[in-house]
C-alpha cells in the first residue's frame, strides 16, 4: 500500500456530487458500494475511491486513523 495514497484519502475532498467537500475517508460505505456497482470515475479520484472501497470492505479503516489531521 502506497503511504501517499493513504495521506490523500485523509486530506483530499470529494470534488462533486452528494458529498462534495467531504474528506474522502469520511465518505459512507454505501456511497462507495454505489460507485463500485456503477463504475468509479476515471483518473486519480477513481483510483482513490476504489482504494477506499477496498479499505472499508476489508475493515482496514484503522490504517487511516493515524494520518487524520
- Shape descriptor reads globular
Radius of gyration: 11 Å
Averaged pLDDT: 94
Which assembly state applies to the chains in this document? single chain
InterPro entries: QSregVF_b
Pfam families: QSregVF_b
Protein name: DUF3820 family protein
How would you describe this structure to a colleague?
- This protein is an all-alpha fold and 69 residues long.
- The chain has one domain (3-67).
- It is 46% helix and 0% strand.
Brief digest:
This protein is mostly helical and 69 residues long. It has helices spanning 3-9, 29-38, 43-57. The longest helix has 15 residues, at 43-57.
Q: Which properties best describe this structure?
A:
mainly alpha, 69 residues
SSE inventory with pairings:
Elements: H1 3-9, H2 29-38, H3 43-57
Amino acid at each position: 500500500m502506497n503511504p501517499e495514497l493513504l495521506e490523500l484519502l485523509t486530506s483530499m475532498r470529494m470534488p462533486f456530487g452528494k458529498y462534495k467537500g467531504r474528506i474522502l475517508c469520511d465518505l459512507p460505505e454505501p456511497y462507495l458500494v454505489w460507485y463500485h456497482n456503477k463504475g468509479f470515475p476515471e483518473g486519480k479520484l477513481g483510483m482513490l475511491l476504489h482504494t477506499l472501497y477496498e479499505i472499508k470492505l476489508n475493515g482496514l479503516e484503522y490504517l487511516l486513523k493515524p494520518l487524520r489531521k
